[in-house]
Amino acid sequence: MEISSGSDYTRYWLDYFLSIPGHEIFCEVEESYILDRFNLTGLNTEVEHFHYALQLITDSLEEDIEDENLRHEIEKSAVKLYGLIHARYIITNRGLARMVEKFRRGDFGKCPRVLCQRQHVLPVGLTDVPFQKSVRLYCPRCEDVYFSSNKKHNCIDGAFFGTTFPHLLLQVYPQFIPIRTQERYVPKIFGFKIHEIAEQHRKQDEIYKENVKRIEAAPEE
Is 191 exposed, middle or buried (0-12, 13-18, 19+ CB in 10 A)? Predict the structure, then answer.
């Protein structure tokens, strides 16, 4: 979509952004938080076309941008800026409150591990540096991370959630910490645990070697 002062896109950018398939993983950052300059500290050096991008996000872009390449760059910058603001917002009290509701509803998905019994998961970044790794899903039951089954999530930057978020949420809302699972899948062959079969084979090999040595050491008749 093009940026122009009369388009619905510029007037309702955030609604459009959150409606994109896969973006249900984001929460809506309050406009008052976005407009507070303290919350944007340092982002002007990380995001190109910072002022244009901020105006686009807050639906206050009044200037027509005729250069198509510049419009495209501003759109990309707006996504990056909102993502980095989002990473900061979701570790505030109000942001955590919004995200815990999404977690409770299962908006982020469920753990693919069978023994976790469809435990709700939380988005997490493996790094806080943008454009390094896509968002992953953290399971608080098995305490491991997974790729999302929703392929659209794999195109979302993990830095837009950060490395701190899921762990801080569970510290603030300990009632959502599940009982850690001790259950592990045990591979078996014909009902025998594989490690037990391996142990049996090891003992059989030892007995065989001992018998060979005994035969070799026996005096010839």
Answer: exposed
Q: Residue 77's CB: how many other CB atoms inside 10 A?
A: 21
The domains located in the chain, with CATH, are: 10-90 (1.10.1820.10), 108-206 (2.20.25.20)
Our CA angle for 146, 171, 160, nearest 5°, is 50
In the chain, % of residues over pLDDT 70: 86
Q: How far apart, in whole angstroms, are the C-alpha atoms of residue 40 and residue 47?
A: 11
Provide the token pair at 60.
């206050």
- CA separation for the pair 9, 15 (Å, rounded): 9
Separation of alpha carbons 53 and 221, rounded Å: 97
Q: Is the pLDDT of residue 103 over 80?
A: yes
List Cβ neighbours of 26 (8 Å cut-off, separation of 6 or more). 17, 18, 86, 160
Q: The pTM is what?
A: 0.80
Interatomic CA distance for residues 184 and 60, integer angstroms: 54
Q: What kind and span of H or E run contains 123?
A: strand 122-124
Instruction: Say if residue 78 is exposed, middle or buried (CB neighbours under 10 Å; 0-12, 13-18, 19+).
Output: buried
What is the tens place of the pLDDT at every residue in 20-74? 999 999 999 999 999 999 999 999 999 999 999 999 999 887 767 777 888 889 9
Contact 100, 42 (CB under 8 A): no
